[in-house]
Design a protein that fits this description.
alpha/beta; Rossmann fold; 2 domains; three-stranded antiparallel β-sheet; about 20% strand
């Protein structure tokens, strides 16, 4: 099942893949936090307040200098899934991957896009996979429709991404790159996204196809602004994706 193409999965195999996806670890590299934490290392910031408090028990003599240093927090993971008609053979499995990411990791945001962009984080936060997928599907009016990649990315950048959600985040786009819109629009939006994101990872289920070349207009327009371009057609490919997400 690990190597089998998602497009060939039966309904039973899709349910089994949900269990396997829940075992994936999407930790990702941490980022430095603005909040300080206690530290034993010299050379960090001197914690005057704690030093003074500790000295009170010794008659006011500061016999030990205490320190603080910047803490770490998990980088936000933002996942955007193409649910257009060309992605229909893969979208059902990849929606399950998004659900596993949302319930299995802190600081995850999930979106679906076709001709419009829909935020699905709340719907996918339900730990019951069947209920989560049902609620998510009900929220998406353009399932298996057309694709407006550039317009969807502009909506994401304008409403959420550039304002803060994508800043310092790992952004994962699950799409075959087919787009009915203007390539220049997508290129501009990918450029905006790359400026603020920590890394942009594009997952294309068609990349595994022998002789594949990123010739689709959308894919070709986006490629210069992508940090990682990986496969996404199978469980084995998603396992590799988790390793890509986890390295800094």
């Amino acid at each position: 099942l690990r190597e089998k193409d998602f497009a060939e999965y039966s309904d039973d195999e899709l349910h089994e893949s949900q269990r396997l996806m829940q075992q994936l670890r999407l930790a990702g590299p941490p980022r430095t936090s603005l909040r300080l934490r206690n530290s034993r290392r010299r050379g960090s910031r001197h914690d005057l307040r704690r030093t003074v408090r500790a000295s009170i028990t010794h008659g006011g003599e500061p016999i030990q200098l205490l320190w603080r240093e910047p803490g770490e927090k998990l980088r936000r993971l933002v996942v955007l899934l193409d649910i257009s008609g060309s992605m229909e053979p893969y979208a059902r499995a990849l929606l399950r991957f998004m659900h596993a990411a949302v319930v299995g990791r802190q600081r995850v945001e999930a979106f679906a896009f076709g001709t419009r962009l829909t935020r699905l984080t709340k719907e996918l936060a339900n730990r019951n996979p069947d209920k989560a997928l049902q609620r998510a599907s009900a929220q998406v009016p353009d399932w298996s429709g057309g694709t407006r990649l550039g317009d969807s990315m502009k909506k994401f950048n304008d409403t959420w991404g550039v304002r803060g959600m994508a800043r310092g985040a790992i952004v994962v786009i699950l799409s075959d790159g087919w787009d009915r819109g203007e390539p220049a629009v997508l290129a501009e939006q990918m450029k905006r996204l790359q400026r603020v994101a920590h890394r942009v990872v594009w997952v294309n289920p068609l990349k595994v196809t022998p002789g594949y070349a990123p010739l689709a207009r959308g894919m070709a327009a986006a490629l210069p602004y992508i940090d990682e371009f990986v496969e996404g057609h199978s469980m084995a490919a998603l396992e590799q994706l988790t390793r890509v997400i986890s390295h800094d």
